[in-house]
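stage 2 :: seqdesign
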C-alpha cells in the first residue's frame, strides 16, 4: 500500500478536492458579496459579524468533529457536516433580514468545521505519509478555480442579479462529490478496543462544552470590543470573554500550546497565529477597495483571486522534493513575507496610488500562507501518535478557526466602533494593517519553536 501511486486513491482524492473547492467558492464568493448584501440589508457597520459568526460556529464543528472521527469514524461527521453546511446556505439565500442571515452563517460554519477536520482524518486514514505533502498541495490547489471564477461570478450575481444566488448555487453542487466520497469513509473508531488513549464519553461531552465556551467567548469578545467606548460594560465583557476563550481552548489542544512548547504545541499555536494575522486583514480588503478606490464588487473580489493563486504557489513549493529546508524555517519565512506585505498594504489604501497594486501584493502575502499552512498540516500528522490524528487535527483546525475568528473579530470590532461613513476609513485601515504586520514579526520568532521536542 505504501508504494501505491497517488492515482490509486483517485476517487477519494476527487471527493476531498471537490468538497474543498465548494467550501472555497463559498468563502471567496461571500467575501465578495458581503459589502453588497450588508448594504441592501442595512447592516454595513455589522459587516464583521457576517464573517465572525461563521468562523465562531466553525469552532464548535471543529471540536465535535475531532472527537467524533476518533470514536466513530469519518462517515457520520462528513454526513452531518454536509447537511448543516447545505442547510445554512439555504437559510442565507432566503434570509429576509441580516439577523436571519447570521443564523444561516452559523449553521453553515458548524458544518464547515465538521467537514474540514474530517477531511484531515480521511487523509491520515487513506494516504501514506510520503503522499501527504502532495495531497495537502492539491487541497490548497482546490482554491484556485474558485479564486479565479468566484469573485467575478459573485460580483456579477450580487450587483446584476441577486446576492442570494451566491449562497443557493452551492447546495446542488455539493451532491455529486458527497455521493462519491461517503462510501469510501471509515465507519469505526481509529483505535483498537481498550486503547487507553481513546476518548471516553465523558471526555467527548467535556470537549463539546469547551467548544461552546470558546465560541461564546469569541462572539462576546467582538461584541465587547465594539462597545469599549460606551462605558465600562464593554470592558467587562471583553475580560470575561477572554477568560472564557482561554478556559475552553486549553483542554482542547496539546498541553503547552498557549506557552509555545516545542514541537506539536507550537505547530498548533502557529496555525491560529497565521490565520488571525492574515484573515483579519483580508476580510476588509474588498470593502477598502470599494469605499476608497471606487471598485465594483467583482473587481474588488479579484484581489482575493490573487491571494488564492499566491497561497497555492506557496503550498506547491513546500511539497516539492527539492525543498530541503526544515519546515519550522518555512514558518519563519512565511511570517516575514506576510508581515512585510501587510505593512506595504498601508501605502495602497487610497488614490492617487492605484488600487490594482493590491492584487500582486496580496498574492505575494498569500505565498507566505501557502508555505506555512500546508506545513502545519504535514507536521501535525507527523507528530501525532496512532489513533490521535483526529483530536490533533481537530486542535489544528480549532486553532485555525479561533485565530481567524479573533483576527476578524478584533478588526471587525474596530471597524464597527470607528467606521466613518462620511469622511472615509483610510486611517482606520492603516492602523489595522500596521498592527497586523507588527504581529507578524512575533509570529516569525515563534516559528523557531516548531522543531521537534
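stage 2 :: out
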Amino acid at each position: 500500500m505504501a508504494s501505491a501511486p497517488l492515482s490509486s486513491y483517485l476517487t477519494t482524492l476527487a471527493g476531498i478536492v471537490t468538497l474543498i473547492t465548494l467550501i472555497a467558492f463559498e468563502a471567496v464568493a461571500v467575501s465578495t458579496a458581503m459589502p453588497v448584501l450588508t448594504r441592501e440589508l442595512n447592516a454595513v457597520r455589522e459587516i464583521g459579524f457576517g464573517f465572525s459568526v461563521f468562523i465562531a460556529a466553525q469552532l464548535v464543528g471543529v471540536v465535535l468533529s475531532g472527537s467524533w472521527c476518533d470514536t466513530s469514524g469519518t462517515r457520520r461527521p462528513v454526513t452531518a457536516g454536509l447537511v448543516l453546511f447545505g442547510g445554512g446556505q439555504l437559510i442565507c439565500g432566503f434570509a429576509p433580514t441580516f439577523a436571519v442571515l447570521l443564523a444561516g452563517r452559523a449553521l453553515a460554519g458548524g458544518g464547515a468545521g465538521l467537514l474540514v477536520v474530517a477531511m484531515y482524518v480521511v487523509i491520515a486514514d487513506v494516504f501514506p505519509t510520503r503522499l501527504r505533502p502532495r495531497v495537502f498541495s492539491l487541497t490548497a490547489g482546490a482554491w484556485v478555480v474558485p479564486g479565479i471564477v468566484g469573485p467575478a461570478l459573485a460580483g456579477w450575481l450580487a450587483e446584476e442579479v441577486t446576492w442570494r444566488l451566491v449562497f443557493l448555487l452551492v447546495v446542488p453542487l455539493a451532491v455529486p462529490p458527497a455521493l462519491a466520497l461517503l462510501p469510501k469513509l471509515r465507519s469505526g473508531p481509529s483505535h483498537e478496543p481498550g486503547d487507553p488513549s481513546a476518548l471516553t464519553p465523558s471526555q467527548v461531552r467535556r470537549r463539546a462544552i469547551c467548544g461552546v465556551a470558546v465560541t461564546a467567548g469569541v462572539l462576546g469578545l467582538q461584541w465587547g470590543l465594539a462597545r469599549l467606548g460606551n462605558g465600562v460594560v464593554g470592558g467587562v465583557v471583553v475580560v470575561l470573554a477572554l477568560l472564557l476563550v482561554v478556559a475552553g481552548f486549553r483542554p482542547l489542544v496539546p498541553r503547552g500550546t498557549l506557552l509555545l512548547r516545542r514541537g506539536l504545541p507550537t505547530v498548533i499555536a502557529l496555525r491560529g497565529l497565521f490565520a488571525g494575522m492574515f484573515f483579519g486583514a483580508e476580510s476588509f480588503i474588498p470593502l477598502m477597495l470599494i469605499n476608497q478606490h471606487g471598485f465594483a464588487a467583482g473587481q474588488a473580489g479579484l484581489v482575493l483571486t490573487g491571494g488564492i493563486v499566491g497561497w497555492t504557489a506557496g503550498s506547491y513549493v513546500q511539497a516539492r522534493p527539492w525543498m530541503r529546508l526544515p519546515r519550522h524555517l518555512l514558518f519563519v519565512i512565511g511570517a516575514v513575507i506576510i508581515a512585510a506585505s501587510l505593512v506595504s498594504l498601508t501605502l495602497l489604501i487610497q488614490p492617487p496610488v492605484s488600487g490594482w497594486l493590491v492584487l500582486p501584493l496580496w498574492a505575494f502575502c498569500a505565498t507566505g500562507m501557502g508555505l506555512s499552512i500546508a506545513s502545519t498540516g504535514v507536521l501535525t500528522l507527523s507528530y501525532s501518535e496512532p489513533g490521535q490524528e483526529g483530536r490533533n487535527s481537530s486542535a489544528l483546525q480549532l486553532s485555525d478557526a479561533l485565530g481567524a475568528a479573533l483576527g476578524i473579530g478584533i478588526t471587525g470590532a474596530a471597524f464597527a466602533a470607528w467606521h466613518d461613513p462620511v469622511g472615509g476609513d483610510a486611517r482606520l485601515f492603516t492602523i489595522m494593517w500596521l498592527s497586523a504586520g507588527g504581529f507578524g514579526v512575533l509570529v516569525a520568532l515563534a516559528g523557531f519553536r516548531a522543531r521537534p521536542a
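stage 3 :: structure notes
- The longest helix spans residues 10-40.
- The mean pLDDT is 83.
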